[in-house]
Structure of CCA-adding enzyme:
Amino acid sequence: MEEPFIKAKPIIETLIEAGFEAYFVGGSVRDHLLGRSRGDIDIATSALPEDVQALFDRTIPVGIKHGTVVVLHNQEMYEVTTFRIDGDYQDFRRPSKVEFVTSLEEDLSRRDFTINAIAMDIHGTIIDPFEGQKDLKNKLIQTVGNPDDRFLEDPLRIMRAIRFVSQLDFELSPETKKSIKRHAHLLTKISVERVLVEFEKLLTGQTANKKAIMLIAELQIQNYLPLLDNKAEELRQFAVLCSQQALTLEEQWALLIHILKIEDIEFFFRQWKSSNERIKTCRLYLNVIAELKNCTNLSRYTVYTYGPEAVKSGIRLYCLLENKQSDAVLTELQTITQSLPIVARKEMAITGNDLIEWYSKKGGPWLSKTIEIVERAVVNGEVENNKENIKEWLLTCNPPSENNY
Ligand code: ATP
Ligand code: MG
């Protein structure tokens, strides 16, 4: 057994000593059988949440209603979930209530795919009532039980199926695939936040994200995703480019937005319920792409205002889109970055107060405009970044009597 399981063993031992059953389950067992080691271990138990809370000193009640308690042990967090089956999925939301059950097999039967419905006991013995190991060997994603029922119950599983294709480089079983095509429209019934989590895991699946994105287009799933309606061709183009270079998640979003020719980025991301941080980063990348399209030389001011990291991403995306080599532009970026006299406005040798004094004028819109002019000149090397030089330069090219900024 691998290290992460050995570290989690005392939790299972404690539960067993108290008379309960407990097993390793979910993604950690699947990945262990695939020979991919991972940190987060999930445990399923016959103990009720209150039993778990009573048995361990440090717990966090993260989802008592759904049977989940986090147990803190040796600086690690373990999700311990009571054996359960899901109650009604009303209006395609998460089950409003769950029913705790006593058998492991029942618990495994509510899980989405056969490869995710495998348990392992404390001795490393595998419990696999739905032949998940066979599907692992055949690299197949298929639902536990009838796919139509399972996708109707929770349409998020459609996105989960495709994201496992992406992460594991597996195929959908023919039945599962047909059923997804029939039920893709149900994706509009569930919250965008849940879809986004799976979609982003799909994008960052290093192994087969091209295959997964192509599959979205093939099964017409995009018609039920925010602002991707009828964009199968664009998605295919996106898939091909994603496979040509390892991109970060933000870079992928920027690339997608560029390919879709989205103008209102904010609206796009709002529909996807994305974070503001993501909007900001993508906007920077898209600005760099646009600037490089207009003029192939990098400007020092662009590097200064967007920051070298964002510019680097923009360059990579631009070259990917234009099918150009990025080496020369990246070297240029490095040269510019190293020669920038300042990296932020606060490093300027003057402040607004200096300007107010030199021009003997009250603050106003002219002030920020003048600061920006000085900033630009400093960054472009037209004037050295010290007070005296800036004063001389500024008062020569823009004497107080003519300051109309
Ligand atoms: P990973 O953690 O690598 O993203 P995972 O398989 O552990 O993958 P989680 O979302 O962490 O996925 O869920 C843990 C387990 O819970 C799954 O392996 C599966 O057994 C079950 N599960 C999760 N979501 C669903 C769902 N929507 N329907 C049915 N079972 C689910
Ligand atoms: Mg998990």
Summary: The mean pLDDT is 93. The radius of gyration is 28 Å. DSSP finds 20 helices and eleven strands in the chain.
